Amino acid sequence: MSVLVNKDSKIIVQGFTGSEGTFHAEQMIEYGTQVVGGVTPGKGGQEHLGKPVFNTVKDAVEKTAADVSIIFVPPAFAADAIMEAADAGIKVIITITEGIPVADMIKASDYIKNRDCRLIGPNCPGVITPGEAKVGIMPGFVFKKGKVGIVSKSGTLTYEAADQVVKQGLGITTAIGIGGDPIIGTTTKEAVELLMNDPETECIVMIGEIGGQLEADAARWVKENGNKKPVVGFIAGETAPKGRTMGHAGAIVGGADDTAEAKKRIMQECGIHVVNSPAEIGKKVAEVVGA
């Protein structure tokens, strides 16, 4: 079992022939991900990296039966790319693009609300189910198959956590980089819920950061649902000056509950095993899993 992507996922790349799309599609194909084609308007009918190029997502879905899309489209056009994918019947839309205007994302998230699809991102590293499918920009070699799920706002900390978990001999079921923008598709709570419902995931690592309520909402959901699986949590940005945006557009402290200390307190109260440094994640996972 896995969540969101697996060896049967058929992936198309939106922004396929651009430099970013080309570089990462190449890495994904090399990893063994089933990339079935890509979309670049005006280049339909061509071949790129040995895969067909289509003018629209609709064409790509009709010809390849693709069910997952990864978006490497420039910020000004990325929201349209998300809506186009949803319209064409893509089930999982993974948006890597950073810097999409908030007004565009409001429109896109509203548009896809009543459609049968799930958006991951934007401004995220993607999703990986080790040994099956890498749909994103993460270094595949860090991830090995195992029994720990990862949900993270930070790309770099996703890789760091995975590396530590693997070194403890535990490995990863699926790692989900949800992205750090103010408006994202799948929340921390929703990603944690997916992993809670995955029979192969025995423990979840939840990595958050200052700003917003996502981690607190997820922690409360875990408690309300009986703490079925151990969750190890880390919040980045403890030393960030109040009111300063740090790295991610969504990482800005707006209220008392947005600080790292407040989030950590709420998580602890909800039974989550909170660590104070990312260097402690692997050890804590091994401890709670009893490895």
TrEMBL record:
UniProt-listed PANTHER family: SUCCINATE--COA LIGASE [ADP_GDP-FORMING] SUBUNIT ALPHA, MITOCHONDRIAL, SUCCINYL-COA LIGASE SUBUNIT ALPHA
Protein name as it appears in the record: Succinate--CoA ligase [ADP-forming] subunit alpha
EC number: 6.2.1.5
CoA-binding domain: residues covered: 4-100
Reaction(s) catalysed by this chain's protein: succinate + ATP + CoA = succinyl-CoA + ADP + phosphate; GTP + succinate + CoA = succinyl-CoA + GDP + phosphate
Binding site for substrate: Y159
Family: Belongs to the succinate/malate CoA ligase alpha subunit family.
Gene: sucD
